[in-house]
Amino acid sequence: MFKDTSPDNINMSAYNDVISNLKFIGRIEKGQKINTNYMLIQPDNIITSLSRTISNNDSRNKTFQFLKKNIDRSFELIEGMIMRIDTLSSSSSRSHNYPRRDKGDKERGDKGDRGKVDEGVGELIRVNCNNMISDLKSSIEGIENLKNTYITDVKFRCDMDTIIQEINAKLMNYSKCEALIIPYERVDENADDPFI
Question: What is the Cα–Cα distance from 118 to 87, expressed in whole angstroms?
Answer without folding.
Answer: 9
